[in-house]
Amino acid sequence: MPTYRREQVLAMAPDAAAARAGQGQAVLVKWPVLGHDEQAAWGECQGSGAAPYRCQAALADGAVRCSCPSRKVPCKHAIGLLLLLADGKVPAAACPPWVTEWLADQAGRQARQAARAARAAGAAQGEVSAGPDPLARERRAASRESKVDAGVDELRRWLGDLARGGLAAAQSQPWEWWDRVARRMIDAQARGLANRVRRLAVIAAAGGHRPDWPERMLDEIGALHLLCEAWTRRDALPAPTAEALRSRIGFTLAAADVSQSGRRITDTWAVLGQRQDDESQVRSLQQWLYGERSGEVVSYLAFAVAGQPLEPGLPPGARTEATVALYPGSLPHRVLIAEQQDRGRPLGPLLGAGSWDEALSSAAEVLALDPWADVLPLAVRSVTVLPAGGVGGTWMLRDNAGRAVSMRTTGPGQWRLLALSGGAPVDVAGEWDGFAFTPQAGARAGRDGQLLE
Amino acid sequence: MTFWTDLVDAAVLGTGRAVLPAPPPSIEGLSAPGPPDGAGLLRLAAVASRARRACHSAAASDLTGPAQAPPDDRPGVSVNARLRLVSLLADEQQELVAEWLRLLAGTGCRPPEARVPDLLWRAADSQQIREALIPLLGPLGPWLAAMNPRWEWAIAAGETGPPDLGTWTTASHRARREMLDQVRRTDPIVGRDLVAATWQGDPPRDRTAFIAGLEAGLSADDEPLLERALADSRGEVRQAAADLLAKLPGSAFSKRAAARAAAAVQVREALVVTPPAEATKEMIADGIDSRPPRGTGLQGWLLRQVAAAAPAAWWTDYAGLAPADLLAIAATTPWATELENGWTECAMRDAHVPWLTALLDRPRRQVDEMATVLLKALPAADRDNWLAAHPDSQLFAAIELAPAPWSATLSAAASDRIVALVNPGGQERLSASHTRVRRLLRLAAARLDPPAMPELDPAEVHPQLANAWAAMMNTLSIRAAMRRELAEEPTP
Prior knowledge:
The structure holds two protein chains of two kinds.
Chain A: H1 6-12, H2 16-25, E1 33-36, E2 40-45, E3 53-58, E4 64-66, H3 76-86, H4 97-124, H5 134-165, H6 167-171, H7 175-187, H8 191-206, H9 213-232, H10 239-249, H11 255-261, E5 264-277, E6 283-291, E7 297-304, E8 318-326, E9 334-340, E10 345-346, H12 356-360, H13 362-369, E11 376-386, E12 395-398, E13 403-407, H14 413-421, E14 426-432, E15 437-444, E16 450-451
Parallel strand pairs in A: 7-9
Antiparallel strand pairs in A: 1-2, 2-3, 3-4, 5-6, 5-8, 6-7, 8-9, 8-10, 11-12, 11-14, 12-13, 14-15, 15-16
Helix pairs in contact in A: 1-3, 2-3, 5-7, 5-9, 7-8, 8-9
Chain B: H1 3-13, H2 25-28, H3 38-55, E1 59-60, H4 79-90, H5 94-105, H6 116-125, H7 127-133, H8 140-145, H9 153-157, H10 173-186, H11 188-197, H12 204-213, H13 223-230, H14 235-245, H15 252-264, E2 265-267, E3 271-273, H16 281-285, H17 298-309, H18 312-319, H19 323-330, H20 336-349, H21 353-360, H22 369-377, H23 380-389, H24 408-422, H25 434-447, H26 466-487
Antiparallel strand pairs in B: 2-3
């Protein structure tokens, strides 16, 4: 049975008042009828009216219904019910008919809700929503393409100037110098180009203490130039590359379209990496999902503007049976979760390639379809952590074949992996950015994997 | 040098100054020969950077890694317990991290390996995390610490061997005092012999500190050395010795003190109090101060000290009265204050529970400092019982003296008290100020025994206290969950 923790339940509350009121309902005496089984928890709560409110929660997805008049979802009764459940105070019981009927009705409701939520999140990212009028849609699309045309021309000229002046000169430019161009790209509705220009600014800023900055900068400039060229010749590109191009430039599809027509994969997905940003104005969550049977690795990405809840993706550090729908375009594929069949099981041992070269061999294939693929999720078995000799030195990860890649050392990840290993070989999963590897999950031989975030 | 690195070098200078390297045949075929300017560099960079990514392979490495850490036989904590620690660390909940570690110590499990670096980092800033972590580090801690200079303290932290007594004569003042404290805890006689061995030559500062150091493990065996110190040439040494001798009820010192007390106070129907007229040589030799502070009479000053020097238990035996009765009849004499002050001193010195509770139960108009000091002098269990029995007392605020975790008795009392305070429908219509109630809620969040968590419908909590209440309940539920999760089945 899926389990809930108190904080999880409180986080579901639509606002602080509901969370408070919910805690007030989490008192056994208020619930003359109370029970749960594998699928649901339910109870009758004595409210102010004569008849008690019937409140129920589907445990798989946290969907709730209550007969009270409150418009808040979940209402305080539902929160109270789930809090009691989290505290282990709800007894196991046979499911009454009013709950089974509702559960049966859930499947359809869930799909509709998912589509709605995906549309809302898409709107936050400036997706073109498919309006009902096809002519108006075409006009909008044409106008956007000509804006991108102008932006690409401007960027190409700017890059040419940068190449003539040299990277050393560019590296000493202030943030505003880069940001001005990035904002021009946003005006041109090419958010993907803007993000890459900002990335150049970050590489320039870190230049002082990252000796490989010229390589990283030229790599990024090469990718940008290739985007400009490809955009100009987009009609001549093979379909998968054209799709990758559009998504790299900043065209995104509405989630509703993806959930309707995107390719689907059902698999046991292990979440072996997660990155959550709660600081920015638009909060985001990114997860790497490793498919056990398909061998596919895909990226779940969710955004939420202030006050909106972040769609949680799959349980981190667990294996979950789920169906994902793939966005066309950039690789590894971005996905949305179409259906989640269970609540997640322990991660178990990590699967992975036998060596770095075996893992890295996927890069050529990916780049042939999406030449802008810059971050590759990789999993390798039995690697040894080689800590840097001194401060600022390079940490390496060596495989069984005696070959090693360098490790990114800007966060605490390398120390956590070293501690997990205790000097023995470990299995790892993480991100390869073309220059260094960032470990995100690890497992000692014979033990279950765990996230290192 | 590869074409890519040549290209990077050219790019750093820019095509205005550098000549573009000639591309190898494999790349020339892909890219039409371009102009030798910025556009040409961009074209080569686009193709070469993609090619570099597509062909990247790991480099051979013959560096030696660190030797493996010695194995740790302790089992691992449950997955839920590990995830709890991860989230406490991420939320910077230092107090809860320290509590989690203290709970871990009771399970015999090892801390989750991957989080040991985070714990070592936190321990640098937090004394309580450091104290809780050190005994739990196991072999992994020193192994890791050897690789990061910032963790050097953890290398030796696990080793607490017996002190080297050979250095007693040469070590610094502080090291000697620490050595004495450590030895007294395990073997008081060895400790006393150390002090006695160098007594003759030690400077007054050492003599004072070492006598005070005998308090741990104090027994009648220490009396000869203490008597010797009582004849010391320095006042502070004599005072330190008198303080300890008074704690030995059977000592000659205590018998002398009792005889003086009996001469000064006789018990008939009422108390007949005859304060000493002057400080005799014997009294001064026993540490009694003959110079009263300004504004205090000599007789009262001596009486107070005479009353204080006798053992607390002796007083009740001698009078055949309970402390409360003795206080009551003393109140009718002109020397009530001096006697009460003296008794307070001896009650605190002897941590004498009947005396301390009798003094605490004296009617008082407001919470004074003395009451808090008395409460502090009570042994923990008796202090908790007293607080639990007096939830309405102003002194209940002194609950903050009770360190975490609160006993079940105290937790239950605090829980009831909190419900009464936050619920305006209850009897106490917000008699206490909100600031004080919030303070109590914060204390309870961190120290209350989670099973004693108060139960109250938040709708009944006074609106101005609702946030503080919710914060307390949230912390308490996390602390309850920590206990549940650490009790779950361990992992290998």
